[in-house]
C-alpha cells in the first residue's frame, strides 16, 4: 500500500451517502458470482447428480428387473432419489460464505437480503434441481417408465425441486452457524418436503396411468408460488438469526 | 450531514458473563476510535453490535440521532465493515471479489478503478489469480482494497492489521488517518499500537470502569 498522508482522498469518500443503488446490479452480480464459484467446483456440483444416478441404478438390481414392477414404483423412486439428492447439496448453500466471512458482508449490504438470498437459491436450483429434472427421464428408461410420462416427470421435478431449493434454503440458513448442521437440516426440512413429494409423484403416476396431470402440476406450481413469496423472507430472517448466534 | 454513531448504556452478555455493561460511546466524523482490551473482552462483539449485525444487546444505538432500527438502511449505505474473516472468496480472483462487493452496494463500478484499488494495496499482478492461491496477508489486502474502492464514511474494522507485513501496516495506518482527516470515521480493534494522533481515541474493554453501572 503506497498511501501516504498527502495522498488525495476522494472527497466523496467521506460525505454521507444515501441508500440506493441498483438492486438489479446486486442481484445479477450475486447470480454470476455463485454460478462462477459452482462451475469452478465441478466435483461438488456433480455430487447430487452422481448420487441420483447411483441410487436409481441400484434399484433394478436390488429389487427385480421385471419391467412391470419397476414401472409401478418408478415415479416414487425417481422422486425420492431426486429429493434426497437435492437435500444432500443443501448444506453447502451458505456454508462457504459463512466460513470465509462473505455472509456477514451479504447481510451488511445496503440491499434487501431477501432478494440477494433468492439469487443464491436460484443458482442452487439451476445447478442441482434443473440438472436432476433433465437427467430423470434418462434414468426413467432404466426403470421402464412408460414413454409418455417423461415430459411430465421432468416438468414435475423442475417445478418441485425449485420449491425444494427454496424451502431447504430456510433450513440451510438456520443451520449454517452449527458445526454439524447436516442432520438437523434434514430433520428440519424433510417434513416440509412431503407435500411437494406427494404431488410430484402424483403427477408422474397420473401420467403413467393416463389420468389428468394438470391438477398435480397446478398444485406443484402453487406450492412453488407460495415458496417464492414466503421463503426469501424466511431465509433472510434465518440468516440473521444464524449470524446473531 | 455529519456523521454520528452513538451508543447509550450498551451491555452485552455472553454465556452468563457480561462482556461489557453501561458502555457509552460516541463516534463522530474525523475520529479514529480504537477499541482496546485483552482477548475475549468483547471487542469483536462490540464491533458487531456497532455495525448492526448483532441484535442481542441491551442499551440503545443511534445513527445521526435516529434509533438504529429506523436508520438501518441509511446506516448500511455508509458503513464499510471488515470482519475477522476477510470475506474474500478463494474460488474467485481478487478482481471478481471486488466486483461483487461493488455490486452489493448497487454499483457496477469499472475495471480501471478496481485495478487501481488492487494496485494501491500492492496486489498489482495478482488481479487474475484465484484468491485461494494468495497468502493470508494478500487475501487481507484484497479485502482492504475495498477501502479504496467503496467510498463509505464509517469504517468498522476488526483486526485489519492481521497478517499484513510491516510496510502494509504503515500504509494502512496512514490510510486510516487520511480517512479521519477527510472527515470520515474509523472504529478499529487491533493489538497493533497505532501512532498517536489527534484523531485517535481509545475505548477500553474488559476493565472495571465499564462495569461501574452494575
From TrEMBL, chain B:
<dbReference type="GO" id="GO:0005524">
    <property type="term" value="F:ATP binding"/>
</dbReference>
<dbReference type="GO" id="GO:0016887">
    <property type="term" value="F:ATP hydrolysis activity"/>
</dbReference>
<keyword id="KW-0547">Nucleotide-binding</keyword>
<protein>
    <submittedName>
        <fullName>Cytochrome c biogenesis heme-transporting ATPase CcmA</fullName>
    </submittedName>
</protein>
<dbReference type="GO" id="GO:0017004">
    <property type="term" value="P:cytochrome complex assembly"/>
</dbReference>
<dbReference type="InterPro" id="IPR027417">
    <property type="entry name" value="P-loop_NTPase"/>
</dbReference>
<keyword id="KW-0472">Membrane</keyword>
<dbReference type="Pfam" id="PF00005">
    <property type="entry name" value="ABC_tran"/>
</dbReference>
<keyword id="KW-0201">Cytochrome c-type biogenesis</keyword>
<feature type="domain" description="ABC transporter">
    <location>
        <begin position="5"/>
        <end position="214"/>
    </location>
</feature>
<dbReference type="InterPro" id="IPR003439">
    <property type="entry name" value="ABC_transporter-like_ATP-bd"/>
</dbReference>
<dbReference type="InterPro" id="IPR005895">
    <property type="entry name" value="ABC_transptr_haem_export_CcmA"/>
</dbReference>
<dbReference type="GO" id="GO:0022857">
    <property type="term" value="F:transmembrane transporter activity"/>
</dbReference>
<keyword id="KW-0067">ATP-binding</keyword>
<keyword id="KW-0813">Transport</keyword>
<dbReference type="InterPro" id="IPR003593">
    <property type="entry name" value="AAA+_ATPase"/>
</dbReference>
<keyword id="KW-1278">Translocase</keyword>
